[in-house]
Amino acid sequence: MTRRRGRARAATAAAATAALCAATLAVPGLAPRAAAEPCRTQATGEELPEGAGPYPLVDRLGLWQAWDLAIGEGVTVAVIDSGVDASHPDLAGQVSDGSEYNGVASADEFERTEVAPVQDCAGHGTAVAGLVAAHRSDHMSGVAPGATVYPVRMDDGVDRATPGTLAAAIDDAVAAGAGVINLSLARPVDDAPVRDAVARAIAADVVVVAAAGNEGNQNVSGGLMYPAAYDGVLAVASVGDDGQPMDSSNAGPWVDLAAYGEALTVVAPGGSGYRTEAGTSMAAAQVSGAAALVRSRFPELTAAEVAARLTDSATPVSGGRNDRTGAGIVDPFGALTHLGGGDGAGSGGDGSGDGAAARPGHVPVQAIPREEPLLSATAATALAWSGVLLLAVVLGLLAAPAVRRAARRGWHAGPGADGDERPPAAPPTAPAGLSWLDGTNRPAPDAARPNRNRTR
């Protein structure tokens, strides 16, 4: 009861924190709802060949098994990027109205407008949104097809956004109630506004996922990229189709996970087509989708517990944790069924104890029962003697016919002269003088005894 009350208080506190953040994260520069400026150049895609499919990520990530447990319903994933074209058939109904940030020459650095998610000039954000939440189909599917995408469009491009603009976009996503924020961007500079905005998001119990970047600094272990390297952020590297680290993927001890990032077919804006994208941006989108699955199945888990499930259940690359792939390749089904521990209160670290049973989403592993002998020593001895006696009876029954035959032969070995068994031999006769001893030739009473009454 005490633990339940403690969890209830923790959930209430988390909700209060989120509400406070939503109330206090005032986004400056709010402008009335308006149509977005038309694109100077529009990224488009092409129709897939007839019969294309199945989508390779479905099998690589074990999504059919994961979807039996969760599809991401009830979870909002914020995509802070170049925008999302929600008119694509694979994203229809999956994307909510979002925000757009335009850089301006003022102290505020930007102007925010609320726009319908219909525009993505570069196509990067639409690709990320598709990997997160596109409908299930033979040719394409997002990792969490039941999740909702909240787009935050950076009009000048996410890579050119000022620190203040990016920080405001992160605050915007938190205020919109996002449970997961996807940041498919990497910056070599630790900007204080961005750092503080990420810290606010984590304090509001949001899972923050960021790309490790594609500068190929794997030979410079420890080179930091932000926001991936901030504490509490899931930093995602990329692996190829063979499951090995991509040369372009950045490395460092701050890398937490990896996902697939080689030549992926993704949703394209401006119609119903598709294009090819690669890199850690696409890998981060897969991890964001996996986080949405876990949050949907275990809504009582904190953001830190969701992150721990994702890393603890990952498939290691090259034998264990390393700077290039972190804990390994994300495994959505493994994260949904993970039985591992954590350092929860009262936990023994092995899934045993009251603390393990009390952790949300944790299925305690029962202790293996001690093997007891089936019989006590006395019972085993009695059973052994019973077996000996039973064996003696069986042998006696089997030997009875042989004994009878031996008796008929007069206890002589072998058959008779004519091949038949010899008849029983006649009993030996007594000597003539003693023949009366065996009852034969016994003298008559008168002859045997003298008549003592006869007179001479």
TrEMBL record:
SUPFAM superfamilies for the chain: Subtilisin-like (SSF52743)
User: Tell me, what is one Gene Ontology molecular-function annotation carried by this entry?
Assistant: serine-type endopeptidase activity
Question: What range(s) does the Peptidase S8/S53 domain occupy?
Answer: 72-328
Q: Which GO terms describe its biological process?
A: proteolysis
InterPro entries, from UniProt?
A: Peptidase_S8/S53_dom, Peptidase_S8/S53_dom_sf, Peptidase_S8_Asp-AS, Peptidase_S8_His-AS, Peptidase_S8_subtilisin-like, Peptidase_S8_subtilisin-rel, TAT_signal
Region feature Disordered, mapped onto this chain: 340-360, 410-456
Give the source species. Answer: Streptomyces marincola
Write the protein's name: Peptidase S8/S53 domain-containing protein
Residues in the active site? 81, 124, 281
Query: Which region is the signal sequence?
Result: 1-26
Gly residues bias spans: 340-354
Which keywords fit this entry according to its UniProt record?
Answer: Hydrolase, Membrane, Protease, Serine protease, Signal, Transmembrane, Transmembrane helix
Q: Name one Pfam family in it.
A: Peptidase_S8
* Family membership noted in the UniProt record: Belongs to the peptidase S8 family.
TM stretches of this protein: 382-403
